[in-house]
Amino acid sequence: MSSESCVMIESLSKCYHVFNSPPDRLKQSILPRLQKVAAPIGRLVGKTITPRQYFQEFWALRDVSFSVGRGEAVGVIGRNGAGKSTLLQLVCGTLTPTSGSVVVKGRVAALLELGSGFNPEFTGVENIHLNASVLGLSSSEIDAKLSDIITFADIGDFIHQPVKTYSSGMAMRLAFAVIAHVDADVLIVDEALSVGDAYFQQKCMRWLRGFCERGTLLFCGHDISAVMSFCNKAIWLDAGAIKAVGDSKEVCEAYTSAVYAQSTGLPAAAIRSSRRKSFIAKEQSALQRPAQSITVFEFNDKCASFGSGDGTVLDVRLSRPDGSDLNWIEGGEEVCVTITVRAEVSITHPIVGFHVKDRLGQPLFGDNTYLAFREKKFEIKQGEIVDVKFVFDLPCLQSGEYAITAAIASGTLENHVQHHWLHDALVFTVNSPYRNGVMVAIPMRSITIDPVTQLSLGTTTRNSDSISTMAN
Questions:
Q1: For 266-301, what is each residue's pLDDT tens digit?
Q2: Which of 49, 53, 240, 265 would staple 39 via disulfide (CB 3.0–4.6 Å)?
Q3: Nearest CA to 465 among 409, 373, 386?
């Protein structure tokens, strides 16, 4: 991170005029001017005419000052009406400040209100040219990047249709695809990633993580987990003024505590951490837990991937250990992630693994075969297909979308070659009453590898001579 500031805000304020009725707006546009003209005449006859205001002042921002260093990721948090969107629009230059100054060094790209900057009558391709040119790209640069932008957006033939025919998710895809290819120095995102399907959200999150390594990010939103995940610094706005600024974790925790205290009618001093009772296993198993529903989507073999090609992930499944569908769960029961892989060449010391990510792309839990099978001389021969099964207790997950990343590699955990890594190979959604808000780690109960004999094209059979081990 550079110590050089690329966003400098000094005593920034923004005031709006609020009128009680439409006639007051008309009066304000005419009468003060007439009163100002009549003031000299009034003074001649001994009367003082003072122009009257027909509006009330609303200060969306008042005396806000801070700076953002090059390479920093800063989150802007606060309740609705705190001034977050106004601040970001002032940084972008789409609003004019009432007082104060904003200085931004470098090219700025912004993803503000959904579809902003698009002409609804233009096609997707035409809007790419329009948006990219506004963001500073030349015609030749746009033409060179057009194919990559269209591929990133992935909206099919709709790219040649008017934007007014797009869904909100398609509009977000197109907008994000443009800003991802304009080589911006400063990126501003204002609560625009809540739309779109799970696969595209994961793609956006991966791109944002990469951008944070080289550019400056201003990220505004109510998703505190996202702010803590992306940002090393946070600014808490309250009623148009800075309430706190500093480390993102500390500021977000203070904000969350304040919101919780206000919603429950408690003073902030009353909010404190507490220790929960410890239960023995028997008592835990006897607890009555409400059920949560789960929906598992189909395996996505078209998802983003990379690898040497010496191995292929053919399928990823989430089920009960006996292979039956997983529809209703309580949390804590056994489930099974099955990864079917094929060796394109003979692979010695294979490592097959997975991890489950939340919608922000943060890994929550997972495992691989390395530790369980490191003492066994195991090899997947060329053309051989095996099922790798991970059986474990599924934790109590919050409601939301999750994705399973699966991979096959060879070597050791410290020194290995990835043969096939699939981002978001399987997506599942959970509808849960739990609101624990924490990341979890889970022990594996067992891991098995079942050889699969290929009989004919499109037909396989599972071999009962499986290799298994009990995980520690």
A1: 555 434 433 333 333 333 333 444 556 677 888 888
A2: 49
A3: 386
How far CA 324 is from CA of 122, 145, 162, 328, in Å, comes to 49, 46, 45, 12
Distance, in Å, from the CA atom of 308 to the CA atom of 294, rounded to the nearest integer, reads 34
211-222 core/surface letters (b: 16 or more CB in 10 A; e: else)? bbeebbbbbbbe
pLDDT digits (tens, 9 = 90+) for 243-253: 888 888 788 87
Place of tokens 């996505």: 300
pLDDT digits over 112-136, tens only?
A: 765 567 888 889 889 888 888 887 8
Q: Who contacts 141 (Cβ-Cβ below 8 Å, separation ≥6)?
A: 132
- The reported pLDDT for the residue numbered 284 is 33
The arithmetic mean of pLDDT across residues 348-364, rounded, is 86
Amino acid 67: pLDDT: 87
Model pLDDT, residue 350:
93
Q: Greatest CA span in the chain, whole angstroms?
A: 110
Distance separating alpha carbons of residues 233 and 190, to the nearest angstrom? 16
Sign, CA torsion 329/330/335/339:
positive
Nearest partner of 100 among 75, 76, 66, 77, judged by Cα: 66
Q: What is the DSSP string of 220-239?
A: E-S-HHHHHHH-SEEEEEET
Written as one string, the DSSP assignment of 179-226 is: HTTS--SEEEEES-TTSS-HHHHHHHHHHHHHHHTTSEEEEE-S-HHH
Q: Tell me the domains of the chain and their CATH numbers.
A: 58-270 (3.40.50.300), 292-469 (2.70.50.60)
3 state DSSP class of 289 = coil
Position 200 confidence tier, pLDDT thresholds 50, 70, 90:
confident
First to last CA, the chain: 41
pLDDT at 406 over 90: yes
Can you list the alpha helix ranges (DSSP code H) found in 313-392?
A: 370-373
Give me 97's structure tokens: 């400040």
The neighbour count for residue 93, using CB atoms within 10 Å, is 11
Chain mean position to CA 356: 15
The residue with tokens 């098995």 is 448
Unique residue bearing structure tokens 């009034």: 42
| Cα–chain center distance at 212 | 13
The residue to which tokens 């966003």 are assigned: 7
pTM greater than 0.70: no
Among the ranges 42-46, 174-178, 249-253, which has the highest mean pLDDT value?
174-178
- Reported as type and span, the H/E element at residue 25 is helix 22-44
